Amino acid sequence: MHGVYYGGAGGGGGGYYGGGAGGAGGYDGAGGGGGSNYVDPSIVGAAITAGKNGGNGSITIYEGAIPPAPKALVNSDTVAGGSSSPEALAASDQGFDVTVVSGATWSAMTAANFGQYDLLIAGDPYCSGLAGSFTANATTWGPVVMGTAGGRTKAGNRILIGTDPVTHGASSTNDRGRIIRTGIAFAGKQPGTTGVYFNASCDYSSHVATLAALDQLTSEPGTWTESNSAPCGGSVSLVASEPSFTDLTSSSLQGWSCSVHETFPTFPTDWSALAVATDSATKPVCGVDPNTGASACGEAYILIAGSSVVVASGSISVSPLDATNPVGTSHTVTAHVTSGGSPLAGQVVTFTVTGQNAGAPGTCVPAGCVTDSNGDVSFTYTDTNGAGDDTIKASFTDAAGSLQAATAQKHWTGPTNAPPDAMCQNVTANTDPGTCVAASASIDNGSVDPDGDAITLDQSPAGPYGLGDSSVTLTATDTSSATDSCTATVTVLDAEMPTIACPVPQTLECTGNMVAGATVGSPTAADNCSVASATCGASSGNFPLGTTTFACSATDGSSNSASCNSSITVVDTTAPEISCPAPIVAECTGPTGANVVPGTASAGDICSPVTITGPAAGLYPIGTSTVAYMATDQADLSSSCVATIKVVDTGRPTVSCVESYNPSTTNVPRASDTNQDGFYRVGSGDSCGAAVIKLGTYTLTAGETIKITQTPGKSGVTLVNTMGPAAIKHFQVGPGDALVTATDDAGNSSSAICLVPPRPR
Question: Kind of pairing, strands 158-161 and 195-199?
């Protein structure tokens, strides 16, 4: 923080940073209600706070951005009015981001939940006992306040109030509300901690729950007790101070119809009485009013624990009151004890350290922490927790049984911190698989801290980084929060190839001329960034028989490419069609048949030329021959058909029966009616084979000589005998029955009459 500027007070007219027109004073000081809030545009990180009650506003100038507002959490069961309660409004006026939750929500919260807040508030719900939702889970939120849970490592400030200011008209702005405003300011002032504003209100019947909750808020010896015996409308007095309570006075706490509802006669040593009920029956605590210097004793009813608590007493003092030392060294305070204004020797003094080195042990001189003859005793301890602030409290119980206490402040500072040295380098990164960004890329080039402190590195933006160049700032922060920054360029390249899927291979039937028409599909492609093009090396059209393989490729915007292959196969699965010639009928030309030239088959194929095979020309036997034809295309598919060649014998054989000589004699038969001995020679001929010659039912051979005798009154043919050495058959026939018939294998026949004269009478 560079500084705080306050607006002018009163008198009218606007100041450069604020001011006013004069008006009534308030707890934040006098000043007008008007005036400008102008801030020079060149100022970065200016936070303007308006004045309250006509008071001055302020402008705080921060180094860099304005830090986030601290957060306060209010249990609605413990206040009157929820977000409009005096406690919530006071916290909001002090810059807290206030959240009000139900008791049920509070009860369900975890330590991690409570650790997200800088201040916990349990207020005054119009003189009621402590809400069970607040005390029931004190074992959860209490350790957070004490810096041992919820991500907290250091105890926060605590304030305990044993009265009900809201019931008695306290608001977030009026005089009686001072205890609310200052108490909240104190409880929430320690950065990096969670403080608690704990108002016990009218706690008449819940002492067990209250004291159990308070046990969670201490780390030092001592026992909590609670009493309702102090006079309700009695007198009270401040007996300690702390910078947050500068605006608090004893008079602002006094004069209520019931200023005190409960007191805490005893309490652990890490707590201090801020105000006491002076007309209580016992006087366990004594101190000096920081505003009037008057001593007061009584039972504590407002108590505080934490940093920078200043307690003074007329009977004990501590020196030095404020000191600063380097971290890791030792510190000595001396307590001086008096009684009636004279040094008190032999008094045991208790020393308690709270703050950065809370609970630190020490060494007393004289031993046993007993005052010497001058009423003095010293206490020495060593810083072991680094930079921070401690409060050292020296106390003893006087002869009247009252606690006398005084405090001193100690500030531990570290050596001058050298900021880290942020070192950057330009880097190149590839996109992460499947994305068009690089999720992370470090530009750190060996950033170091000159002091050897551990450093944390933050990049802004932290990623992911898009394709191309991104300007990135690296900030190095050391353990003292000192920073240094540098800037570099993150260049993101796309080295990832696109993915491609080729069109599905096609198989098509040939449609003619040894080709088929095909439509080439489009490839599908994807890329982590973008696809610039996706094409195939073939276009739609006619494809020849067989398989045509083609390649497809995809290219992205960074010229990365991928390819795949597909194919179109044209097949011929259709057999040719064939038509056989008409059957052929040929006349035989000899016994073996006839020479025939078979007909020609016709054939065709939808895709390719065909070859026709068929029977050869040649000699075909008598009868029907089946001949086959086959058509074969270039895919070796074939079709066949059959035809017939029929060789027929339709010609009749020739037959003859002519008069012949008797082979046994020289007689020559005569063809006359008087030739009784008719010798005949039969003969036949056929172009396609032999014929069977018959006389009646008797088979003869061609060239055979027979004898026929015609006998009147007879009919038919009768073999009479076989004559002579030539075995001539002698037939007797009836008139007209000497008919010789020749029949060939085809059943064709011819007849001839043997001219046989009738037998003489």
Answer: parallel
